[in-house]
């Protein structure tokens, strides 16, 4: 089955430090991969996507993600974390044939002052 | 700038009531979705729709139905609300290229 996995339920970093939220995928063919962020009591917001082209994708709020085909990973990164980055992050794979996405279980990012 | 609108942010209903959750998008998207989100269970797909009057069951359709009479509106119906349907409900739409656009969510409490 095609899927994405987020191996960490929780990531804690200090403000100003770099952050990484991990995502691995198991998808045949060329994957359409996405990152979303969810703040408390809100819907999910699109952060960035990889469909084709440059393996380093830049998105909203200073986030970026690197598509790594050999490691089947699509980790979300930011060079310097902010307290306001604290939220729930979801990795997702979009199945173009089925017309719908499969989401990871989410990773809670906490950035401490 | 709101593109996917869910009619209620918070809703409290009684057990056995028929509940309607409304979702409207203004992006002319064909595909629309209803998810529920519960702690520790991630996002679970209830129903989705590819076009007007079309619907497909997701992973947890039991106890729910949907209606899509117009392209922009996708309604989720709880036929007879139960306490185990207390949850956060998320509506989304997509144009298949740019990912999903989500509504702000409806937190439903069934008492």
Question: Which descriptors would you attach to this protein?
Answer:
heterodimer, A: about 110 residues, six-stranded mixed β-sheet, 12 strands, B: about 110 residues, mainly beta, seven-stranded mixed β-sheet, three-stranded antiparallel β-sheet
Structure description:
The complex is a heterodimer of chains A (113) and B (111). Chain A has 113 residues and is mainly β. Chain A contains no helices and 12 strands. In chain A, strands 2, 5, 6, 10, 11 and 12 form a 6-stranded mixed β-sheet that branches. Chain A is globular, with a radius of gyration of 13 Å. Chain B has 111 residues and is mainly beta. In chain B, 0% of the residues lie in helices and 54% in strands. Chain B is built from no helices and 12 strands. Chain B has strands at 4-6, 10-13, 19-21, 23-25, 31-38, 42-49, 56-57, 64-70, 73-78, 87-94, 100-102, 106-110. In chain B, the strands form 3 sheets. In chain B, strands 2, 5, 6, 7, 10, 11 and 12 form a 7-stranded mixed β-sheet that branches. A 3-stranded antiparallel β-sheet of chain B has the order 3-9-8, with no helix packed on it. The N and C termini of chain B lie far apart (34 Å). The model of chain B has no long low-confidence stretch (mean pLDDT 93). The interface between A and B is medium-sized, with 21 and 25 residues.
How many helical elements of chain B?
0
Q: Give the biggest beta sheet of chain B.
A: 7 strands, mixed
Radius of gyration over C-alpha positions of chain B, nearest whole angstrom: 13 Å
SSE succession of chain B: EEEEEEEEEEEE
Shape of chain A: globular
Number of strands of chain A: 12
Helical stretch tally of chain A? 0
Instruction: Output the helix-strand order of chain A.
Output: EEEEEEEEEEEE
Question: What is the radius of gyration of chain A computed over CA atoms, rounded to a whole number of angstroms?
Answer: 13 Å
The parts of chain A where pLDDT drops under 50 for at least 5 residues are: none
């Amino acid at each position: 089955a095609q899927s994405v996995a987020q191996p960490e339920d929780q990531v804690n970093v200090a403000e100003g430090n770099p952050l990484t939220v991990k995502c691995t995928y198991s998808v045949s063919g060329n994957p359409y991969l996405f990152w979303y962020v969810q703040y408390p009591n809100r819907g999910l917001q699109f952060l960035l996507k990889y469909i084709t082209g440059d393996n380093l994708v830049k998105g909203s709020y200073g986030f970026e993600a690197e598509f790594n085909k050999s490691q089947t990973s699509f980790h979300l990164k930011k060079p310097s974390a902010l307290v306001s980055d604290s939220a729930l992050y979801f990795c997702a794979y979009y199945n173009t044939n089925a017309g719908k996405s499969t989401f990871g279980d989410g990773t809670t990012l906490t950035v401490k002052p | 700038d709101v593109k996917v609108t869910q009619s209620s942010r918070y809703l409290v209903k009684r057990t056995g009531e028929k509940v309607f959750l409304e979702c409207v998008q203004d992006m002319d998207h064909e595909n629309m979705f209803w998810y529920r989100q519960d702690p520790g269970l991630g996002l679970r797909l209830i129903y989705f729709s590819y076009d007007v009057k079309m619907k497909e069951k997701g992973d947890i359709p039991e106890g729910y139905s949907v209606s899509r009479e117009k392209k922009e509106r996708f309604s989720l119906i709880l036929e007879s609300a139960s306490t185990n349907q207390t949850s956060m409900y998320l509506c989304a739409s997509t144009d298949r290229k740019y990912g999903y656009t989500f509504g702000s969510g409806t937190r439903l409490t069934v008492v």
